[in-house]
Amino acid sequence: MSIEEGKDSNRSVQSRVFPLRSLQCFVLFMVLGIGFLVLSMYYFGVQNVVNKTRPNSQSCFQVPVTLRQWIKPPLNLMHKMSDEELFWRATFLPRVKKYPFKRTPKVAFMFLTRGPLPLTPLWERFLKGHEGLYSIYIHSLPSYHPNFPPNSVFYGRQIPSQVTEWGKMSLCDAERRLLANALLDINNERFVLLSESCIPLYNFSIVYHYLMKSLYSFIGAFDDPGPYGRGRYNQNMAPEVNITQWRKGSQWFELNRKLAVSIVEDTKFYPKFEEFCRPACYVDEHYFPTMLTIQAANLVANRTITWVDWSRGGAHPATFGKNDITEQFLKKVLESHTCIYNNQPSPVCFLFARKFAPNTLGPLLDLAPKFFGY
């Protein structure tokens, strides 16, 4: 009996020893497994973080990979740059004149308006089929929110704007803002300032080639000895501007890229006009004509390409309504002019006209194919 009891006792001890060793091995295996798992997660997690952050850090310090990334125009015109930042950015100029890529020059149509563009359907017909040869920019009141459909050429073309007042420097600020935003697209070569009441008088091909082949920019800049010309000059503008350099012209201009940059980068004449040309000196009639006459008179045609009618008198040109749009009227606008184009006489003097009321849209659309060619 004692022997049997001894055997059972020995078996009991062995059975207790075996589970204990198994448990120790299992715990050791679990510890090693958990450790390996933690190390793996840490290693691959760090690698993943590095891989994710590396492109971001590289994008901060590396230049764009291709030239296309440098020259691509901004897709979203609603940036957050101040005017000072915008003008600085817009005046970047390449020192090498020859473009290392195929550049298709474009016309920038810049609309200075308070709100809606009621003649949009006429402009859309004019522009149809000429994508890649033009750009559109709209400066309106900040409170105005356009509702152009996504398929319109005017959709998403509004730039950051500020309130403007007629005859004051804020109007020239808006024009400079339009030029600066348009200069961000390196393909824009000619810059046309328009209002919501402007219409094109010829088809796009004629307008495009007329501008691209011109040796000059189109802005009126004449010396008016009367009270509405030299009579507005302030002697405090000297020595930057003296009275013999004082010029007057329409605000509706067309400029090449070189003169557009000159206007945006100006810090010499701007302070003088801002301080000393206030109503009854209307700065939008004198600032750009005077500055460009001083800086680049040989590049200015000294005439505008936007027709208006001053025959009715008053401080503003005539506004035309629905009943004015007749065949006889359009013939008069198109045919009764002569001017100098590239130093040669030309019957084509005006490419645009204003001021047309919203209710003229219907008759203009009806007569445009016959008279305007679009």
From TrEMBL:
GO terms for molecular function: glycosyltransferase activity. Pfam families: Branch. The chain crosses the membrane at residues 21-44. It is found in: Membrane. InterPro entries: BC10-like, Glyco_trans_14. This is Core-2 i-branching beta-n-acetylglucosaminyltransferase family protein. Its main location: membrane. It comes from the Eukaryota. The lineage of its organism: Eukaryota, Viridiplantae, Streptophyta, Embryophyta, Tracheophyta. The keyword Cytoplasm does not apply. GO terms for cellular component: membrane. It is a single-pass type II membrane protein. Keywords: Glycoprotein, Glycosyltransferase, Membrane, Transferase, Transmembrane, Transmembrane helix.
